[in-house]
């Protein structure tokens, strides 16, 4: 006899209606053959998901690596764990290692912890997205809500100062967490001397050698340049420059319609720039569900963002006052020109390992420069691990954090786990777009029979009450088992709403599970419940 927490009413088989069953049972599987059957169908459904990491974990070269031994508070100079890079992957790994009793040092060259995410990525971009949204609302929406303002102006230095304050407070907060958890913090550029020694040119000007039984590479990523385009961070900027412009450009051209380009385009568009996004591919954000993507593009177009898809930037001329871009259809054809005051190069990011000395210790990378690891985050060099943006997988802060925790758990002799099929992705525009699991295109390609349920926010009472009802929830579920395969949400705060779906996927929930879960009224979350109802049966409110 043992306790089992039943995650889905579909897996309970007796005469009562499915949804009225108790969820915690004491039983033996032998007396509940239906339960065993259901578990099998769930496992069958699970095969729809496959992790990219399996590609690497099957390699015998990587699979046999075991972490070196470690000692709890050994008292020696040697660390149990040394982390190179203090971004979301590295600092989280360092804190977790210390929490597990491992003597830990983290080396960071930037002079501030938090990596790309806190310093020039997630946090400053979200600060500007929020501030620019407030300005846009004040200018365009307050009046219809009965809030009358005589004038609304942008104070860009104040907006930037608020962003910098948020960044400064958060990066200092991590230093505080390092102190609290007794992580040693070395400020400087790390370079491998051997698989267990890192030489650090410190920011104060000296040099020190940090020794570790296990070394984790968490050096992250950098902006991907484009051939022939020199980023001066003034007129031709990367995302870093776009986060600190000193004035609102009249015309902004964004090269690349990924999430960073669209977020930064939104910021400056709301503040008054004419924004044109030039994209080589046929679609914006290629990883997004196609149907949701189309709605999303229409929404951005309504906000006056212009798109030139299937278009290649041939050259960029900065000889005059502005910038002149020469464009060409991606498939070849007549050239056209486009004028801009500022050009944002947002064509993706590349792993960063410059000056780290990977060649000295023989760490293997792929053609894209990403460090290859096995399922335990071990490289081909025993005792050397890698996590976050520097390895294959989605380049996202929360994915880097999950890597960091799991990697350290393996080093400490425990089991770690990251499910790469369940990493949510969010575009923080307005409305936001958030998703987890498979897109409809992916489900079709897998040949799985599926059902789709959708619910528009136009029929959601909370969205109507606040007059912010653009968007939709779309759920994909396996036809045979009703197991949820993917959830896509376009709405205000979709980035918060998605986590109910992430949890549902983790527990292998069915759409009926979500539909029968009581959701508070009036909330945007009710749209997810209604979409779930639409997936296995019928929604109420449409
Ligand atoms: C504009 C922008 C917006 C973004 N928004 C989001 C978002 O909203 N959500 C999200 O999930 N992700 C977002 N990202 C991506 C996110 O920032 C990265 O996925 C995340 O920071 C990766 O974490 P990491 O720890 O692997 O690497 P990083 O954050 O890049 O950190 C690596 C650190 O290592 C240091 N380092 C490198 N080499 C050395 C060396 N040899 N010695 C010492 N230190 C070294 C670097 O200085 C850096 O601080 C955004 C990125 C950008 C650019």
TrEMBL record:
Catalytic residues (positions): 521 (proton acceptor)
Domain FAD/NAD(P)-binding, chain residue ranges per copy: 80-404
Residue numbers binding NAD(+): 256-263, 279, 348
E.C. number(s) listed in UniProt: 1.8.1.4
A GO MF label: flavin adenine dinucleotide binding
Signal peptide: none
GO cellular component, one term: oxoglutarate dehydrogenase complex
Disulphide connectivity of cysteines: 117-122
PROSITE patterns hit by this protein: PYRIDINE_REDOX_1
Catalytic reactions on record: N(6)-[(R)-dihydrolipoyl]-L-lysyl-[protein] + NAD(+) = N(6)-[(R)-lipoyl]-L-lysyl-[protein] + NADH + H(+)
GO biological process, one term: 2-oxoglutarate metabolic process
Cofactor note: Binds 1 FAD per subunit.
Record keywords: Disulfide bond, FAD, Flavoprotein, NAD, Nucleotide-binding, Oxidoreductase, Redox-active center
Residue positions binding FAD: 126, 190, 219-221, 389, 395-398
Further remark: The active site is a redox-active disulfide bond.
Similarity section: Belongs to the class-I pyridine nucleotide-disulfide oxidoreductase family.
Protein name (record): Dihydrolipoyl dehydrogenase
Organism name: Olea europaea subsp. europaea
Top-level taxonomy: Eukaryota, Viridiplantae, Streptophyta, Embryophyta, Tracheophyta
């Amino acid at each position: 006899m043992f306790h089992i927490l039943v995650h889905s009413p579909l897996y309970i088989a007796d005469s009562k209606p499915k949804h009225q069953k108790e969820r915690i049972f004491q039983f033996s599987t032998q007396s509940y053959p239906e339960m065993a059957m259901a578990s099998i169908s769930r496992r069958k459904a699970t095969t729809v998901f496959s992790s990219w990491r399996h590609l690497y974990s099957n390699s015998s070269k990587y699979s046999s690596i075991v972490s070196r031994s470690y000692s709890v508070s050994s008292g020696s100079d040697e660390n149990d764990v040394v982390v190179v890079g203090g971004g979301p992957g590295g600092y989280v790994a360092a804190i977790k290692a210390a929490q597990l009793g491992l003597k830990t040092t983290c080396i960071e060259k930037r002079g501030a912890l938090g990596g790309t995410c806190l310093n020039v990525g997630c946090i400053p971009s979200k600060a500007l997205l929020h501030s620019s949204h407030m300005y846009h609302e004040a200018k365009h929406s307050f009046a219809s809500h009965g809030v009358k303002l005589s004038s609304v102006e942008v104070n860009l230095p104040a907006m930037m100062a608020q962003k910098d304050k948020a960044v400064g407070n958060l990066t200092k907060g991590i230093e505080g967490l390092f102190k609290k958890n007794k992580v040693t913090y070395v400020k400087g550029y790390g370079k491998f001397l051997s698989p267990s020694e890192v030489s650090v040119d410190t920011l104060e000007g000296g040099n020190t050698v940090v020794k570790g039984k296990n070394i984790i590479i968490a050096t992250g990523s950098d902006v991907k340049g484009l051939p022939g385009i020199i980023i001066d961070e003034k007129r031709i900027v990367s995302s870093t420059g776009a986060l600190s412009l000193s004035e609102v450009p009249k015309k902004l051209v964004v090269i690349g319609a990924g999430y960073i380009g669209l977020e930064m385009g939104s910021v400056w568009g709301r503040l008054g720039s004419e924004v044109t996004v030039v994209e080589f591919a046929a679609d914006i954000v290629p990883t997004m569900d196609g149907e949701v993507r189309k709605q999303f593009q229409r929404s951005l177009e309504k906000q006056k963002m212009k798109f030139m898809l299937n278009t290649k930037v041939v050259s960029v001329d900065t000889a005059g006052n502005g910038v002149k871009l020469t464009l060409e259809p991606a498939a070849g054809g007549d050239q056209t020109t486009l004028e801009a005051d500022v050009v944002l190069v947002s064509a993706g990011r590349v792993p960063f390992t410059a000056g780290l000395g990977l060649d000295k210790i023989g760490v293997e990378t792929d053609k894209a420069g990403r460090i290859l690891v096995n399922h335990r985050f071990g490289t081909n060099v025993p005792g050397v691990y890698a996590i976050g943006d520097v390895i294959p997988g989605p380049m996202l802060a929360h994915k880097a954090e999950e890597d960091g925790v799991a990697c350290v758990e393996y080093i400490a002799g425990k089991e770690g786990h990251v499910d790469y099929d369940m990493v949510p992705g969010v575009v923080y525009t307005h409305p936001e777009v958030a998703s987890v699991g498979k897109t409809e295109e992916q489900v079709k390609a897998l040949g799985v029979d599926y059902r789709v349920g959708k619910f528009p926010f136009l029929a959601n009472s909370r969205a109507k009450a606040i007059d912010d009802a653009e968007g939709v929830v779309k759920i994909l579920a396996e036809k045979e088992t009703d197991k949820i395969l993917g959830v896509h949400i376009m709405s205000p705060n979709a980035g918060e709403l998605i986590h109910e779906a992430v949890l549902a996927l983790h527990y292998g929930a069915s759409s009926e599970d979500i539909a029968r879960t009581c959701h508070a009224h009036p909330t945007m979350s009710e749209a997810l419940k209604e979409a779930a109802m639409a997936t296995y049966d019928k929604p109420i409110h449409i």
